[in-house]
Amino acid sequence: MNDKSNSFMYDCFFNSVVELMKTKPYKEITIKDICEKSGFSRMAYYRNFESKDDILIKKVEAVYDRLKVLVKENIGKTYDIEIFREIYNEFLNNHLISTLFKARLMDYFVYSNRDLIIFFYKDIYNLDVNDPEVKQKIYDALGISISTMLYLVVEDKIFTYNEIIRKIKKFMV
Prior knowledge:
By secondary structure, the protein is mostly helical. The protein folds into 2 domains: about 1-50, Arc Repressor Mutant, subunit A, CATH 1.10.10; about 55-170. It has helices at about 5-20, 30-40, 40-50, 50-75, 80-95, 95-100, 105-125, 130-155, 160-170. Helix 1 packs across helix 2 (about 30-40).
């Protein structure tokens, strides 16, 4: 199976989990439920995933991989704000944050988000991420981005894209 087919299949499995979570708690969702909803066989599931958590983890990894490519390709070509718009779209519009939260996998999101912020500071801004001042900025940015996204999910609030960007950018370089 090629990358495009794998991506489609992963998205189908992920979207199935999201849809199933609308009617039952994550811990009650079975592999059988996911396969029936996605239209893929259990064999396809077990060839690609070790657990239902793995579906969500692979989605997060795919999103971060796409974002890193986007950042590298567009730095200097577009405003950083466009990169943040893509991050916003990936995490909030695709229900990734709320799904991870409901599945109690936020720790994975926190570490992945930290890695993306370190990537920004190290690879894009060319800063020494071991410098204590830079480390503090990294964790400040991590804190505000996570708390903002969690606030949106937990309180079911809606901020405009520009409000979120203002909150996050004030902690970036």
